[in-house]
């Protein structure tokens, strides 16, 4: 970029990237722990956000403390928890993540699970966690540290005869189906021995504390890593409806198809008649043991296994948005947030957000539209190198080509630093993207049709590459304009 217009676009690129990376950096896991929890000797205090004062768990009341850390942020979450707990007798656990931590604790077994598809360590970690939890009794306190990505990183089929290769094929089929994440997770929950509440069911007598870093909407927390510790309200009947809706059964490996067609396919743990969110029912009030989800008299069946469970959200996409908003305002932008296209098809989301963006930007000299959440991609062929963020950005690039010379840019990237099957977090598009790509010999429409956007953005220098961030708070989209 050499002329004034190019320099302006380069500046917008730098600003958008700075807002994205700055928003992630501000979502500090250690600070989030300290805002929510405090370890004071043998007491774990929860700092109540409503100002009503701390509630507590007496750690000295437990002979054993187990920690199961799952997901893309499992390493940083575990490290912070161990720093706060210091040395404590009876502490053991499992850490399963897609990036092996450099610093490891000898009391823990570490596994490098696969993502976006499970691997041998995904299975080994799940088996190890179940073995540990089956030993838990009333004198055991279990911390579950759960972040996004755990659906693939940590998995084990409910049917022990289903192989890893067959499980990988199942995950591939779901990812290519175009189904929204809540529907994908309904199928995962009923397939897995560690999802849909079954991980918590492995230690029914223990007190369980789940500390969450959700990469899902807060209204759907049981979708986080397919809800290993939360009661599940989806049903076998819904599973069968989804298999038919997306015509999945004929394409499943024979063993998995036979599993789902069983007349006695087991329901996942949870009260299927209750659809309300579990989270508001779980304040900490007892000085030793957390309050139960509901009274024992009103419980039925497997719901009782969750009676000694509490949940705490450490960070969420709300924090990511608010950090991005603050940074954009520091740059002098008028900011609008629109998260309404969550789980939309990427092309529909691009059309919607661009329409809103163009409407607002004529009213403000410096404008930034922020959107958080995940778009869907239905794969109609074997994909190239790309992901939903780069697919979204390339779709926007084709539309932005109609605005030559204007100072506008669109960034779409994953807060975990990984987009699809690439090492990029996402990409940035502007009115010159298509022309520059063609100059490098790329056909943008063909790259889009082949789900092969990464080589194009890499060649023109517009990939967003952060490396794994140790976070996973959903995708962030920034649409920025500056009037001359």
Describe the overall structure.
The chain has two domains: 4-25 and 318-482, MOFRL domain (glycerate kinase, domain 1), CATH 3.40.1480; 29-314, Glycerate kinase, MOFRL-like N-terminal domain (Rossmann fold, 3-Layer(aba) Sandwich). Strands 6-5-4-7-8-9 form a six-stranded parallel sheet, with helices on both faces. Strands 10-11-15-12-13-14 form a six-stranded mixed sheet, sandwiched between helices. Strands 1-2-3 form a three-stranded antiparallel sheet. 35% of the residues lie in helices and 17% in strands. It has helices at 4-26, 29-36, 74-85, 120-134, 150-153, 164-176, 181-191, 198-201, 236-245, 254-260, 317-330, 346-361, 388-400, 433-439, 444-449, 453-459; strands spanning 37-40, 43-46, 55-58, 64-70, 91-97, 108-112, 140-147, 207-213, 309-313, 334-337, 366-372, 408-414, 426-429, 463-464, 475-482. The chain has 16 helices and 15 strands. It is α/β, with parallel strands linked by helices and 484 residues long. The chain is globular.
Beta-strand residue percentage: 15-25%
**Which sequence of strands runs across the widest sheet?**
6-5-4-7-8-9
Q: How is the CATH topology of the largest domain named?
A: Rossmann fold
Main sheet attributes: strand count, strand direction, barrel closure: 6 strands, parallel
Tell me the CATH architecture of the largest domain: 3-Layer(aba) Sandwich
CATH class of the largest domain: Alpha Beta
What portion of residues is helical? Answer: 25-40%
Q: Given the helix and strand composition, which structural class is it?
A: alpha/beta
- Coarse shape: globular
Measure the end-to-end span.
17 Å
Poorly predicted spans: 276-301
Q: What's the rounded overall pLDDT mean?
A: 88
What is the domain total for the residues? Answer: 2
- Count of distinct strands: 15
CATH superfamily caption of the largest domain? Glycerate kinase, MOFRL-like N-terminal domain
Helical segment tally?
A: 16
Radius of gyration: 23 Å
């Amino acid at each position: 970029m050499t002329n004034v217009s190019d320099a302006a676009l380069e500046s917008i690129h730098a600003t958008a990237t700075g807002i994205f990376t700055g928003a992630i950096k501000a979502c500090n896991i250690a600070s989030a722990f300290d805002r929510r929890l405090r370890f004071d000797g043998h007491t774990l205090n929860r700092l109540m956000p409503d100002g009503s004062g701390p509630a507590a768990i007496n750690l000295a009341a437990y002979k054993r403390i187990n920690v199961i850390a799952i997901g893309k942020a499992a390493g940083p979450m575990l490290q912070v928890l161990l720093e706060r707990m210091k040395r404590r007798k009876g502490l053991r656990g499992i850490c399963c993540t897609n990036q092996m931590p450099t610093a490891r604790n000898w009391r823990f077994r570490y596994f490098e699970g696969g993502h976006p598809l499970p691997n041998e360590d995904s299975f080994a970690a799940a088996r190890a966690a179940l073995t540990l939890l089956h030993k838990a009794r009333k004198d055991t306190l279990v911390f579950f540290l759960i972040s996004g990505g755990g659906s693939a990183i940590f998995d084990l089929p409910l049917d022990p005869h289903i192989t890893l290769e067959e499980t990988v094929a199942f995950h591939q089929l779901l990812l290519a189906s175009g189904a929204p994440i809540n529907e994908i997770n309904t199928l995962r929950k009923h397939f897995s021995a560690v999802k849909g509440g079954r991980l918590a069911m492995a230690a029914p007598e223990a007190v369980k504390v789940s500390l969450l870093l959700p990469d899902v909407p807060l209204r759907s927390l049981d979708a986080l890593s397919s809800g290993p510790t939360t009661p599940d309200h989806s049903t076998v009947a819904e599973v069968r409806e989804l298999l038919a809706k997306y015509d999945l059964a004929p394409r499943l490996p024979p063993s998995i198809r036979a599993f789902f067609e069983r007349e006695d396919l087991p329901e996942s743990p949870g009260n299927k008649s209750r659809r309300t969110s579990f989270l508001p029912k779980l304040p900490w009030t007892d000085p030793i043991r957390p309050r139960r989800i509901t009274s024992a008299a009103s419980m039925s069946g497997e719901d009782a296994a969750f009676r000694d469970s509490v949940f705490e959200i450490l960070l969420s996409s709300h924090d990511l948005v608010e950090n991005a908003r603050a940074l954009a305002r520091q740059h002098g932008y008028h900011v609008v947030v629109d998260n309404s296209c969550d789980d939309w098809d990427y092309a529909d989301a691009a059309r919607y957000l661009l329409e809103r963006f163009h409407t607002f930007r004529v009213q403000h000299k410096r404008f930034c539209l922020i959107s958080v959440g995940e778009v869907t991609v239905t794969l109609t062929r074997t994909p190239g190198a790309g992901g939903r963020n780069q697919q979204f950005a390339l779709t926007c690039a084709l539309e932005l080509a109609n605005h030559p010379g204007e100072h506008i840019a669109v960034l779409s990237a994953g807060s975990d630093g990984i987009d699809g099957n690439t090492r990029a977090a996402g990409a940035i598009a502007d009115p010159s993207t298509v022309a520059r790509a063609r100059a490098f010999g790329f056909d943008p429409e063909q790259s889009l049709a082949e789900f092969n956007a990464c080589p194009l953005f890499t060649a023109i220098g517009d990939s967003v590459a952060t490396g794994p961030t140790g976070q996973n708070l959903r995708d962030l989209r920034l649409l920025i304009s500056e009037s001359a």
